[in-house]
Each structure stands twice: as C-alpha cells, then as structure tokens.
Design a protein that fits this description.
- By secondary structure, the chain is of the alpha/beta class.
- It has one domain: Purple Acid Phosphatase, chain A, domain 2.
- It contains nine helices and eight strands.
- A six-stranded mixed sheet has the order 3-4-5-6-8-7, with no helix packed on it.
- A hairpin with a 4-residue loop joins strand 3 and strand 4.
Amino acid sequence: MDFVENRHWLNQISAQEYRDDVLILAGDVTHNFELFQRILKELRRKFKHLFFVPGNHDLWIQGTAFNDSLEKFEALLKFCQDAQITMEPALLNDGKRKIGIIPIFSWYHLKQETGTLYLPKPGEEQLQRLWSDFHFVRWPNHHFRPVEYFVELTRRPKSFTEADLIITFSHFLPRQETMFSENRKIDRQRMKKFDRHPQFNFSQVAGSTLIEKKLRQFRADIHVYGHQHINRDRVIDGVRYVSHCLGYPEERRRGTIVGIERGLKCIG
C-alpha cells in the first residue's frame, strides 16, 4: 500500500458488500507503521472478520521507532489484538459449516539452509546485492532463526477436530511447486529468455518446507499465501493452494499479475 494506485484500489472495496465475510490478508501491507494501522483499521470496518499475518515488508526497519524486526512484529501483534484483527486460530460458523482458519507465521530459508525452496537459476547473482531485506530487516542477534521461531508460534487448537473446512495461510510459500502454475519440467532456458529480472533468483527467498509441514499437520484443505506477486490457484497432493496478490501497479500494467482486476477472490 505504499503506492497511491494501490490505496485507491483499497478505497474502492465496498463498505457494505462484505459485512458478513472474512478477509484473509497474507502480509506485505507496508513498512510504514502509521500507514499500516490506518489501512488495517479501514479494512476491519468493511469485513466481519479480518485475519492477518505479516510479510517481510511489514517488518522492515526504517527510522528509530523499533530496535529490530522482532520488536516490530510484537508491535504489530499488539495493534492487531487491540483492533480486533485476528492473528491466531479461530473456528467460525457460516450457518452451514464450521470453518477453521489458522494463520501460520513464517519466514524463508536461504539456499544454504535446510528447508529452503531454492532452485538453481542460470545467471543468478549474489542475493545480498539484490534483496532489500538484507538492508531493512534486523533481527535481535546473529543466532536468531526467524523461520523456526515464527512457524512454531502457531498451534492448532483441539476444537478444530470439529471443523468441516480448514484454511491455513502464510505470507511465504510452503513448497517449490507453488512457484509455478502447473506440474511440469522446469524449462530453465525459457525462464532465462522471459525473466524480466534475470539476475534475481526468487526461490532463494521464497519460503520454507516447514510451512508445508505445518499446514499438513493442521490437515489444511486450502492454503493461502502471498509474497511472489504472481497469482495461483492449484491443487497439490490434496490441498488447494491459492495466491491472490494486488502487487505493484507496474506489475499489473505489464500483465504479470492477473485476476486482481476482478476484485477480491472467494475461496470458501
């Protein structure tokens, strides 16, 4: 929401149409904490329930308001609790079904770490030069392991055994296949030809297999995720994986993000 066009898109969401609906917001609202609060308060007024997990951009440190990204994460938690924005598992009833919704806090494993989603890419350069998180994300110490810390924050309540449908969601991707639209052999030469950022390898920062392990433990029927700025809706090993991102205005103009022009996506 750092772009004016994105805020205009947000303002066009009806204040009446979704009063009985649930919005799942899978992170990357803005790094600006004041703007973050205004946007989520506005969304909360338009929906019966608003579920949220932070993305990497939400935890960027710019200025002196927070010592590190974990401190900012705690501030986001506190704000959401006070604003009745849900960041914990909840069992809802739509009159026909009991629906369990489980936010999974997460981060990404780098290519040298166990759990990475890394796939080699021709012509890729050193990630540190191309990825802003190395400049704007700050952890309490060098021993802090963000993936393990965040993923373990979420536990499935025992009451969810009654659920007819379980939806989990995370900001980051849970498995390599979710980077692609279908099961196919990866054509690295095609990737090299059509990739607009040939030096950047997204898979180095895509997510973690620990997210996949968690959603399988929770017996998810649907998993929602963000981060990639490419929209997907596919079934893998019995779970439906959905990504429906707004992305950047330029991404929408050049057609790399499709589907959002039709508005919000109903998945339940």
